[in-house]
Write a structure and sequence with these properties.
alpha+beta, five-stranded antiparallel β-sheet, two-stranded antiparallel sheet, 5 helices, 25% strand
Length: 192
């Protein structure tokens, strides 16, 4: 097996409406982390708002929090925890919850009061590779990953996030059941 790469090309947001390509070092992995070779990344409304400067997220940072990719390298503890290994394709959830608070343990980990969000972590925090607008990103120990069928084309597989979010918003949260009448308003991602 080849050694993991030492650098990655990444698009870094440095100011509102300004993205710069940068070559960044890839850190040594520990037992709890993994390196993802990014195949595709969705573009979310909450990517556009920071780009425009409307949603004031920390910058400089690497945008992109809907990554789909292949595990390039992984620590043993991370491989056991996530049930994946080198060469597996995974979808990575946006949130980095603590997994220990009462909110996380209730199943509402997306509401964790101490969560971090991929792409909203600044470049000067640790290794800084917390966004998927890059060739590679580091998967934090708090990540939630899902094995993804390698036969799906990346441009289809990357739709996991909007489809999952739509299901959460339309079925899980309101408790929608077969036969319910619903009204869908809006042409954006939630409405579609």
């Amino acid at each position: 097996m080849a050694a993991p790469p030492r650098k990655t090309l990444a698009m870094v947001q440095t100011a509102p409406r300004k993205l710069e390509p940068r070559e960044l070092p890839i850190p040594a992995l520990d037992d709890e982390t993994a390196l993802l070779r990014v195949e595709a990344c969705g573009i979310c409304g909450s990517d556009y708002e920071p780009y425009e400067g409307v949603l004031r997220t920390p910058i400089p940072a690497i945008p992109g929090h809907e990554p789909l990719g292949v595990i390039e390298a992984i620590g043993d503890a991370a491989a056991r925890r996530w049930g994946v290994d080198v060469g597996d394709r995974v979808a990575v959830e946006t949130m980095l919850p603590c997994h220990h608070c009462a909110t996380c343990l209730s199943g509402a980990y997306h509401l964790c009061p101490t969560k971090r969000i991929y792409s909203y972590v600044p470049l000067d925090h640790g290794h800084g590779l917390f966004g998927a607008y890059a060739q590679y990103m580091v998967l934090d120990p708090r990540s939630i990953v899902h094995r993804m069928d390698a036969s799906l084309p990346p441009e289809i597989a990357v739709m996991f996030n909007p489809l999952g979010a739509g299901y959460r918003w339309a079925v899980e949260i309101p408790g929608t059941r077969p036969g319910d009448t619903v009204l869908v308003l809006g042409p954006g991602q939630p409405g579609l």
